[in-house]
Amino acid sequence: MIELRNVSKIYTTGERALEDVTLTVEEGDIFGIVGKSGAGKSTMLKLMGLLEMPTTGEVVIFGENAGAYRGAKANAIKKNIGTVFQGFNLLMQRSVAGNIAFPLEITGKRRHEIKTRCEELAELVGLSDKLRAYPASLSGGQKQRVAIARALATNPKILLCDEPTSALDSFTAKEILRLIKDINAKLGMTTVIITHDIHVVKAVCNRMAVVDEAHIVEIGKTAEILANPQSAKTKELLNFDI
Ligand SMILES: Nc1ncnc2c1ncn2[C@@H]1O[C@H](COP(=O)(O)OP(=O)(O)OP(=O)(O)O)[C@@H](O)[C@H]1O
Ligand SMILES: [Mg+2]
Questions:
Q1: Residue 129 and residue 163 in one domain
Q2: Is 13 a pocket residue for ligand 1 (Cβ < 6 Å)?
């Protein structure tokens, strides 16, 4: 579904964010990418979301080399990818319904279609009673629910989440992870979650990659890696070595 093939990314500043990264996210996966700050995690997600292009290597999405596309074709692929961020990135001057509706308005959907879809999505994320509320009046967990509903509005096939629970307390984080897991199961949504917390990966991801200093140092099934971690970095993240 998503493949990075020997991908390197060097930003124009000369910063080497990724080096020779190869990874496959299969349809239906909840794939976890874990590593320390600066490891290159967000860069990987930006490549998957076509927000950045690789310096070398290929980004293949739905079996097509996404790097070859510009303009309308790139936008068509992007429409199938929803993204959720740590800081929620809501439009503060718009209500919950207005935020969820935003991507639908851009794609030119009719008003009554938008209203029905907003109600469906609000129900999915447990915010049916908050459609008229404004983001300033919501808790962090509720804001992230709005962001998830908005990311799902155009029916994407892939959901990319960059540190979706880092701004939340541990209880609320669990609720959001449960929601993401539910959406994956209910909608068969292929999901990628970036986190610095290996326990998040343990809780929800069937497959995982550990990233360190621009490289993947370990990749595979979560259960197998956590039962028998091979790389020093994975062990460190698990607190085996202190
Ligand atoms: N737009 C950019 N321009 C230049 N350098 C960048 C850019 N984005 C990221 N970098 C650099 O690339 C490296 C990897 O950054 P990235 O944001 O992918 O890491 P990360 O693992 O997501 O870190 P964090 O956990 O702090 O979010 C860092 O050294 C960073 O400074
Ligand atoms: Mg990041």
A1: no
A2: yes
CA of 17 to the centre of ligand 1 (A): 6
pLDDT in tens, 166-181: 999 999 999 999 999 9
Ligand 1, atom nearest to 40 Cα: 18
- Nearest Cα residue to atom 18 of ligand 1: 40
What tens digit of pLDDT does each residue of 34-56 get?
999 999 999 999 999 999 999 99
Is the distance from CB of 205 to CB of 222 less than 8 angstroms?
yes
CA dist., res. 139 & res. 217, Å (int)? 36
Ligand nearest to the CA of 212: 1
pTM: 0.94
> For 125-210, where are the alpha helices, taking DSSP H only?
140-152, 170-187, 198-204
State the residue range of the domain holding 237.
25-53+70-80+158-242
Q: In the chain, how many domains are there?
A: 2
Beta bridge mates, 85: 162
